[in-house]
Amino acid sequence: MRLILTPTTIRLLASREPRQASSSGRETGSRRGPATRAAMVAVVLVVAIGATIVTAQAAAAPVPALRAGAAVAPAAAAELSAGAAPAAEAERKPDIVLILTDDQRVDTLWAMPTVQSELVAKGIEFTSGYVSNPLCCPSRASTLTGRYSHGTGVYTNHPKQPNGGFPAFRDRSTVATWLHAGGYRTGLFGKYLNGYSGTYVPPGWDKWFVTYDNGAFYDYTASADGALRTFGSDPADYGTDVLARRVTNFIRSTDPARPMFVYFAPHAPHGPATPAPGDETAFSDLPRWRPPSYDEANVSDKPTYMKKRDLLAETSARVVDRFRLSQYRSLLAVDRAVSEILDTLEKTGRLSNALIVFTADNGFLWGEHRWRSKLVPYEESIRVPFVVRADALVASPRSDGHLVLNIDLAPTFAQLAGVGAPGAEGRSLLPLLSSPTAPWRTDFLLEHLERGPKGVPTYCGVHTERFVYVGYVTGEEELYDLVRDPHQLSNKARQDAYRDVRREMRHRLVELCDPLPPGFAFSF
Ligand SMILES: [Ca+2]
Ligand SMILES: [Ca+2]
Fold first, then answer.
1. How far apart are CA 79 and CA 360, in angstroms?
2. How does pLDDT run across 353-401, given as a tens digit for each residue?
3. CA of 493 to the centre of ligand 2 (A)
4. Can 513 be counted among the known catalytic residues?
5. C-alpha 376 – ligand 2 centre gap (Å)
6. How far is the CA of 372 from the centre of ligand 2 (A)?
7. Residue 51: pLDDT above 80?
8. Which of 210, 232, 234, 229 shows the shortest CA–CA distance to 219?
9. Which residues are near ligand 1, the ion (C-beta closer than 5 Å)?
């Protein structure tokens, strides 16, 4: 009996317990099924997305003693769907495309027409997507490994700090090495880790085109498969376009029988957020950004480092207003790149068999709470765009409010590829992609390490579906009720009405924030 992947099949798949990538077991709501069942789910998912045809009988029959879906999926797919699809496509594992922008706020997604029409409208828009450490390098290290900063050891951007930048990152076991070992052709195009330069190519990458210097929009360097290349300031050198061409060449040049992992990491909309030629005046009519938290009038309830900040002067306000427009403008080239990538996937017969993720490494504040950057534990900083399109897995497009994280990506890709995700603390999103009622986490950890005496003090925090609680190395605390106070204007950490909440959050913080950031101790 043959069964096309239908909502019924998907419910059948979703009724299985998810395979847990986490080894910590510290997350709430996490359940662990027997190994055989976990393996069976992996097989069924791989078969389902690989051939889009499974038999109900096969889905219900356990496959004992499987280490990974990969070993069995091709044979099973061939047996179950012989003649239903060209051999190469039926046997190939799903392609994986990760698009990760730099410093992009979640509320800028509306301005990307292709992302809207081809990813959001055809996939799942996770409206509560977060990063655990809202800064470029630590966030990217976590994305590559599925680990919190306490697992990667990378807490800051700065290569001269013991816990900072590219030198602090242990690159022997990453999603690239896992997928490469699982038969994938892997390619990274764009930003890698802060402090990286030169010709070194980390393990696991078949194609390496990493750009840096001057924000990498113009006049930048590329580390290209062991050689250095420099780019100038001609329109043809515009960074996002150069990267997009490299990505589409990579897709076209990959053997049709081989699955691929594409990591496209454009530098936009990070500062200087230079727009592409022709986009310089887009969005000029956009009203200025003045939410209730803009230039917060009363910061007496916030920690000292925030209390010390002056109200935004007129010049600072103009700078941030201009930068906001540049961010929007620079995203237009990224949107066109997404369109070219999707076209190329379709033309090479890979789109229906692909999982595509669009996200960012951290957000950015446009003057909320007097702040003009990231690093801080406020929503605009930690929340990111998080869209997944996977036509073979997602029965119908939807918006989804589950708490999903950058550390979930590596285990998701690993499960899809039928390989392990050693050390990952995040969870595979695959059960959630198939079913909005899959068991899921209800909170997560925030981490930050102070760069220097003028930086944001080291903190650890817990974010639930309603509250965010942060404990600083200074002993100061913040607690926001995101339902009653979505703009985070009123710190509840010292309010009697929230005493019980604070106690619970402190308790949970001690569980999650382990090991502690260097130099940090709980003060309660
Ligand atoms: Ca960033
Ligand atoms: Ca306030």
1. 40
2. 999 999 999 999 999 999 999 999 999 999 999 999 999 999 999 999 9
3. 12
4. no
5. 15
6. 17
7. no
8. 232
9. 102-103, 136, 361-362
Distance of CA 190 to the CA centre of its chain: 15
Predicted local distance difference test score (pLDDT) of residue 56 = 32
Q: Which residue has the tokens 């119908």?
A: 396
For ligand 2, a single-atom ion, the residues with CB < 5 A are 298, 301, 489
Residue 361 DSSP class: S
The residue type of 73 is A
CA–centroid distance, 298 to ligand 2, in Å, is: 5
**Distance, CA 317 to ligand 2 centroid (Å)?**
19
Confidence of residue 452 (pLDDT cuts 50, 70, 90): confident
The pTM for the full model equals 0.85
User: Closest-lying ligand to the alpha carbon of 139?
Assistant: 1
> DSSP E strands: which ranges in 113-265?
124-130, 185-190, 207-212, 221-224, 227-230, 260-265
Rounded CA separation 175/186 (Å): 10
Tokens 């899809």 sit at which residue? 416
Domains and CATH numbers, the chain: 3-91 (no CATH), 95-286+314-433 (3.40.720.10), 457-512 (3.30.1120.10)
